[in-house]
UniProtKB/TrEMBL annotation:
Organism annotation: Myceligenerans indicum
Keywords on record: Hydrolase, Membrane, Metalloprotease, Protease, Transmembrane, Transmembrane helix
Disulfide bond keyword on record: no
Protein name per the record: CPBP family intramembrane metalloprotease
Pfam families: Rce1-like
Membrane-crossing residue ranges in chain numbering: 12-31, 62-84, 105-125, 200-218, 230-251
């Protein structure tokens, strides 16, 4: 296969994977923010719900939640399968292994701490400026499975976004000859774009998060034996969403009102 044909196949593969996952979410998000901006009501008076109930009956709602998470991870499996064509070392190449679990978790916690407070600041400032909608992190009814499902949802987001928007996208754009800066810009804008439905503030906040995460992933100082490490990003993202989802579900409503989150 010629170099030109190979590049065309890689480009097509990227579009297919993104079209089944984060790229699709980005398109819907752009349409959503367009609808919000032309709705007539200010963004500050609108609401975006992240974890909504799917049915009134508890068992049916749980079934829908688990199916959504399970099928939502299929594009992740596809991306990893495509990368595995390079050989058995492909997953280790992106750091999806158990080579250094303690250090990976430690870096993940550190990244979550670095992102957490500025993220709240972006949201608060955005709300104050009227460029961010009210984000309802959880609208699930109170069931025995509510917290476990929210934990799974947080892990799902971490795996989907970090493996596809960072690890997979870096490997494939690297195959196309992209430099580090070009990748960081593309990955960060992608991350921001599929959060646009929440408003301009979350878009900017997630672009900043994307810059930090993609810089960390591509930085030589954070590699292990020359390999990139995606697990710290998954850990960090999961922790951030756990705090947001479970915290929102468990914190008393009067506290949320006092913090301007309800």
């Amino acid at each position: 296969m010629s170099t030109v044909e190979s590049r065309h196949r890689i480009g097509a593969e990227i579009w297919i994977v993104l079209g089944l996952s984060l790229g699709k979410a980005a398109v819907y998000s752009i349409v959503s923010i367009t609808a919000r901006l032309t709705d007539g009501a200010p963004l500050a008076q609108q609401t975006a719900t992240l974890n909504a109930s799917q049915a009134e009956r508890s068992w049916l709602d749980l079934t829908y939640q688990l199916l959504g998470i399970g099928f939502g991870l299929v594009p992740v499996a596809l991306a990893l399968f495509l990368l595995s064509a390079r050989g058995r070392g492909s997953l280790a190449r992106i750091g999806l292994d158990r080579a250094r679990p303690g250090l990976d978790v430690a870096w993940g916690v550190a990244l979550a701490a670095v992102i957490g407070i500025p993220g709240l600041a972006f949201y608060s400032v955005g709300r104050a400026l009227g460029i961010t909608v009210h984000v309802q992190a959880s609208a699930l009814n109170d069931h025995w499975w509510t917290v476990p499902v929210l934990l799974l949802s947080a892990l799902y987001n971490g795996l989907l976004e970090e493996i596809i928007a960072v690890a997979y996208l870096y490997e494939r754009t690297h195959d196309l000859g992209w430099g580090r800066v070009r990748f960081i810009v593309a990955s960060s804008l992608l991350r921001g774009s599929y959060h646009l439905y929440q408003g301009i503030g979350p878009f900017l906040g997630n672009v900043a998060m994307g810059v930090l995460f993609s810089w960390f992933y591509t930085s030589p100082r954070f590699r292990s034996d020359g390999r990139h490490r995606v697990i710290p990003l998954v850990v960090a993202h999961t922790l951030l969403d756990v705090v947001a989802f479970v915290g929102y579900a468990l914190v008393p409503e009067e506290w949320l009102v006092a913090m301007g989150a309800a």
